[in-house]
Design goal:
seven-stranded mixed β-sheet; alpha+beta; about 30% strand; Aminopeptidase
Length: about 140
């Protein structure tokens, strides 16, 4: 397994990321066009297996004051192996400033992952918690 930056102009990358998006986020999945734009103007780390297939991704909208972790997803058949932690650690290292995200209130595994990485709940919006990580905390 290896982590590398996704290429927004590579249709195969977009299709693999979109398949993970659909499998993980269901009715809240972003469409291919939106994913392509976010990857083009943001940063997307992908986790590739030994066959070069993308099995997970982290999508960040970098900003000088506050980075936004838009998505962190791993194919369900690869979950529970530490790959989400690996991707999260990668983006925290790459973007060491303050970071925020939104996570569904019923997603206990994701909330636990974020809390282990020093994210704290700072608010709520509909069905989601807003979580934030400051710069003073190591990953």
């Amino acid at each position: 397994m290896r982590i590398e930056q996704a290429n927004y102009s590579n249709q195969e990358d977009i299709e693999h990321i979109s398949a993970i998006e659909d499998a993980v986020f269901f009715e809240n999945a972003l469409g291919e066009g939106t994913l392509r734009r976010e990857i083009e103007y943001g940063y997307c780390a992908v986790l590739r297996d030994d066959m070069d297939v993308i099995v997970g991704f982290a999508l960040v909208r970098p900003h000088f004051e506050l980075h936004d972790l838009l998505r962190l997803g791993v194919m369900p058949c690869f979950q529970g192996r530490g790959y989400g932690s690996w991707l999260l650690s990668h983006v925290i290292t790459r973007f060491p400033g303050p970071m925020m995200l939104m996570v569904r209130k019923n997603n206990a595994r994701a909330i636990s992952l974020y809390e282990r990485n020093n994210f704290v709940i700072t608010g709520t919006t509909g069905e989601s918690w807003v979580m934030r990580r400051s710069t003073s905390e190591p990953p």
